[in-house]
Amino acid sequence: xxxxxxxxxxxxxxxxxxxxxxxxxxxxxxxxxxxxxxxxxxxxxxxxxxxxxxxxxxxxxxxxxxxxxxxxxxxxxxxxxxxxxxxxxxxxxxxxxxxxxxxxxxxxxxxxxxxxxxxxxxxxxxxxxxxxxxxxxxxxxxxxxxxxxxxxxxxxxxxxxxxxxxxxxxxxxxxxxxxxxxxxxxxxxxxxxxxxxxxxxxxxxxxxxxxxxxxxxxxxxxxxxxxxxxxxxxxxxxxxxxxxxxxxxxxxxxxxxxxxxxxxxxxxxxxxxxxxxxxxxxxxxxxxxxxxxxxxxxxxxxxxx
Length: 305
Description:
Blueprint: E1 17-19, E2 23-26, E3 29-31, H1 36-39, E4 45-55, H2 56-60, E5 69-76, E6 81-88, E7 90-92, E8 95-105, E9 112-121, E10 132-136, E11 140-143, E12 153-156, H3 158-161, E13 168-172, H4 181-184, E14 185-190, H5 194-197, H6 206-238, H7 249-255, H8 260-272, H9 276-285, H10 287-298
Parallel strand pairs: 12-14
Antiparallel strand pairs: 1-4, 2-3, 2-4, 4-8, 5-6, 5-9, 7-8, 9-10, 9-11, 13-14
Helix pairs in contact: 6-8, 6-9, 7-8, 9-10
């Protein structure tokens, strides 16, 4: 059964208003929302824009159109930072149009931003009610990544991107085993899945967190195995002895503590209680045992009703 949302005061019909996509600027350079996490830092200046177009006749039925305004806001739960701004609506033929913009310093935010946009106007006969909301855009989440020890994280609508439905997906793009972990892995969280979005503010169920942790470990081991195989293929083609075909990945992890292979070794030690070399062998040769040991090591569903 379809739910019906009731409002205390009249609102604009959904069919009479068009919200455009949010856009972003980092230090004056335009970038997609999903790419903000790759370009910002604490010294950045973040700006977000959204445009709207409304039917003039529909707006006029609700009151004095001259008093209608657009309000945009950016909120960061992690730092309790809230910024908002107002913009006027301009007549354009038989419609009213507006562009809202809100700006924040990178030093005042972390983890995630929630962007909101609405149209407000006073209600006739209730002059004290100056901020009656008559229309709202769908809230937009912008991932700013994790802490310095993590990797970039973006919050996107998989539906809007045309991706298959899933709570999250990874881009793992290292070229060599010693490539930096932070620039080799990127996580996309699907905003269409409420429990997935809860991962960013620490309110997700424990089982959801465990599933993500398992997937991160799986991706790291898979990437290491793929790079080892690629290295072995290259060595074989060069005619060198086969003993050099499989690098000592655990030694390499020690030599490069910030690398993707070092992150994979941490996952091997945490979930499999063995070396990365042995974990990669298990992944390649005994995938069913790999998955079993990963579930066991993560404690998935342990202690839950």
